Amino acid sequence: MLSNTCKYAIRALIYLGKFSENGEKIGIKKIAGDLDIPTPFLGKILQNLVKQKILSSTKGPNGGFGLGKPAEEISLYDIVKTIDGEDFFKNCLISLEPCSTNHANGKPCAVHGRFSEVRNELMEFYSQTSIAKIIGDMKGHEELIKL
Amino acid sequence: MLSNTCKYAIRALIYLGKFSENGEKIGIKKIAGDLDIPTPFLGKILQNLVKQKILSSTKGPNGGFGLGKPAEEISLYDIVKTIDGEDFFKNCLISLEPCSTNHANGKPCAVHGRFSEVRNELMEFYSQTSIAKIIGDMKGHEELIKL
DNA sequence: CAAAAATAATACTAAAAAGTATTTATTTGA
DNA sequence: TCAAATAAATACTTTTTAGTATTATTTTTG
Q1: Closest nucleotide to A7: CA versus each C1'
Q2: Single pTM value for the model
Q3: Calpha distance A46→A56 (Å, rounded)
Q4: CATH number, position B130
Q5: B82 lies in which domain range?
Q6: Do A106 and B138 touch (CB under 8 A)?
């Protein structure tokens, strides 16, 4: 499962993709208030995303946060990789150590084969799902969908 | 991702399914040593599984742990549910609160629809994969597979 | 029946994740 | 140019997860 930090990040990115039109910034208090996330905690998270160029930010009056690149180019995979690390996708299901696919370097675990199909679908889901697609899904059902 | 506790539990169950023939018990020191898990920590975990009747145990000399039911009847789903809780499967991907499927009671989140397919496959995987099947997969490749 | 071998139970410590508080730096606009 | 508004940085606290240590209980066997 995703960490709280990561969930907050994804929701903030969807929010920004949806409400920050052409480069205009939204202040962290508004974002945190609307999404019901502790403000300073969200601050820390977004600062991290700014460093990774996924977000951009400006200080001072009328400052705030906005997407750092087109919403089409931000996938859930990018976000999870940045926050929870690539291990989230690569870790072995039942062991603390990584699990190799082939027997040459290291052994796979006992469920490696069975799990790999689902893992591939997961990877597919995370890398194919962009902020833009998510926002597209919401079009027309805004008030029916939880943010 | 599964908790360490849960990973340890799964590996111990595979181990017991594989090495404890017809009801004979294996001591916790041997299990923990072979699987490289801290002994007292594994003890706590296995005691929990005994309470849930997934394992059985006997004290005293020649005592130890063994499966509490046929390996065919123990699925990964059962184990994860017992250790990490059913929330592991039901939780919303991007929110801390649960996420309803229909709009009648509560709103689904913005990725609910897209994620539900993968989630179903995950559920399928966890509930269809039994300890018996995993052991079956290992047959003939024991020394090539990590436990 | 006593001693030894094992699990069971309980209480404690350490590390990581989540969250809070405070201070600093930057930008804008009056 | 100064004050206000904002993000950035840093340090701290709380909660949860992971792991350790100790003691009690049960069972077998000499």
Answers
A1: C18
A2: 0.94
A3: 9
A4: 1.10.10.10
A5: 4-144
A6: no
